[in-house]
Amino acid sequence: MSKFANIGASTVFLFLATLLIVSRFATETFHTPLIFFGFALLITLGIVTTMAGKKSLGQSLIALALFAAITLIWAFATIPFYDPGFDGYAYHLSAIWDIGEGWNPFFSPHNNIWVDSYPNGYWVLQSYIVSLTGLLMSGQALIVGLMAAVALLSYGFFLDSCAENIPRFPRIAALIFSGILVANPVVIGQLLTHYVDAPLYLFGVALALFLLSDAFRENRLARLSALCCIILMVNTKTAALYYTPLIVFAGFVAELTIQRADRDLLKRGLLWIRKKGLLFAFTFILGVTVIGFKPYVTNILDHGQLLYPSVSKIMKGNEPENVIPLSAPMKFVYGIFAQTDHSEWPIDAPIELKIPGTFQLSEFKYLRFDTRRGGFGPFFSLALLAAIAAFTIRRLAHRKHSRAISTRAEDGLALFGALMILASMFFPESWWARYVPFTWLSAILFIAAFIKLNHAKKWDFAARVLAFVALLSFLGCILASGLGAVRESRLLYARTEMIEKISLFPEVKLLMFYDPPAYRDFQSTSTQDGLAVWTRLLADRGLKTEISHERNQFDCDMAGYLNGGIYWCVIIDEMQ
């Protein structure tokens, strides 16, 4: 089963990266998605069979079939639901639809400044789902397929690398491990959205596991899959420019630790750089400058900035007031030890700190797609501290018990986790969970290192108790994120249920209840496509709409909030 898990997961990430690459050769006329699917499928299967043997062909096909089935089932099962997020209506959906209808970002600018300036690789992949299904909101289903692929990969990784110390029910332990890994509250909260923080996390976790797999035992297919993850990451979100090199560096440190039989550290480091590091660096540069030519190179050519618009403009109005003057490490402390709280206006309401393990019942309803206070859930600070403490106690007991016992692999996993914590801690917006999603991975890697260590009698009971506390804390966070996501979706469903009732009127007005940011340049004039997006979504449901820029909801006989800053309005007098 672990062999299928490893080959199957590799096949999925190879296919997605290949599909993105071949898509860059499209012209600005509509091409059937099946052409690019066919090319990507043939290339992927050819690579996998070359590297893993002809017997792997059947496993690859099964994995891709399951990936497609899971994605499509979710797409059709969620037809009644709209995106609970905000940015989906502002720019994600318009980007996906325009790409699916023939717009090639490499050939022309987009009128929406965010679409024109942000990485578009993940939108490209989502556009295939929309084009094939004809469902306007189906692009969000890709995240469920990615969750399945990463769960499969982590299941195989745990069985191969960590399960030797679990004599009873190792497969169940592997299922728990993979389930917790993919059920990051950031991912759960964004399941029905088109946000890209969750995909970035899943691509990054896959990169980490492929690097670790190759570190434990040389694996060319895992290494190639890691290269694919690099390409996918940097074309999903600009934060990948920060996280991708650091994940690779963590893999480098972990491999030096795991393979430290040769004491010549410098020699092994230079060998890794020559054998792997240069290839990773080249792929990163290729992913940014060629495959990611738009927006990275075009931002510099057109605006003189790699990140455009500036981060200060993007973050204005999004930070809780008491973290604005803090350093990044202190913001991280506030984010981890925060009480989970609402994300409604005013966003500048302060973050409240709390003692790890304490909670209020209200914390089980507030987690959602972009929670700005305690976004990993009410027990995450306890989970992180308990995971680190459990590993530390068992590691110290091993050191005192016998210096002859090798702990290379365990130390490698723990170092990887520690470096991910440091990477998250120094990210500029480290207080916001969706911007530092790999903190969740860090805690789980410490638990994996704890499990991989052989049991030592001294203090082991305390270590086991702490590990169990960490496990329960993870589950509590996942429960809270699930309840929060269900609550958010129910609220949106109740609001959009009115669509069936207002469809009885011959015309419905759509209006924006706030003034969007006035970012303009010589290419793009819009920052908010919500009116156009909802016009199309409602037309798909049979509603005739008119965009109004003059009225507000108080002039309406009937009115209601849709989402993304848009109101619907019915004025009965105008229909008589």
From TrEMBL:
Coiled coil: none
Keywords of the record: Membrane, Transmembrane, Transmembrane helix
Transmembrane feature ranges: 34-53, 60-82, 128-159, 171-192, 242-258, 278-297, 376-397, 409-427, 433-453, 465-486
Top-level taxon: Bacteria
Protein name: Glycosyltransferase RgtA/B/C/D-like domain-containing protein
